[in-house]
Amino acid sequence: MNSPTHNQNETENWNNAKPSLASMVSTLRIKLTTTTDGWCVDISSLTPCDAMMALAREDLLEGATILCGDGETKWVACIYGPIETGDARAIVHEVSTSVSPLCADFRMQSVVTSKLNEGISAHVRDYDDALMLASTTLARYMSDMLGENVSEPDLGVMDALLHKTGTISIKPIETKVFASFVDVGISTECPTNPADSSVIYDIHSDSWHCD
Length: 211
What we know:
- It is built from 7 helices and 11 strands.
- It is an alpha+beta fold.
- The radius of gyration is 19 Å and the shape is elongated.
């Protein structure tokens, strides 16, 4: 069994090895809201393509059409079945002008938009898809913090984190890396407020736990 002194030294060495990585990690913000056609999740650190890849499942992509657009607003949409020219034009219009672009076509399952340096807004019909995007984002945050790939938290963990206010903000300065776990401070109120809750990532078991 390691002595307390050894554990303390191990923790200090671990923290000293990570500052260059932590300094490159930006504050993470996730906001979940309901819409007329489902859910919208705003995330500060994903691209539309990354978000669509996180949502991609074999049963979703089979027979689906993927549309994308570029310009001031970049976007990617997933629609069940073939799309005719008129349908595509309606979708392009709604993505550009509507606060709930899923209304453009009842077959559209998701649409992800992004403006320069503003992260993404993902409109999805299923609540689990919104949680999946948030879960993917938190795993990427931890991967950037540790410099290695980590597993995504269960959707239940993300549901618990977002249940209070629908908003979470994570600052690298409030993320504490120890030898066997990482304590992630989370603000569920104003992004500038200090952390009022936390989630634990266990390094050895590659698993997540709410406090």
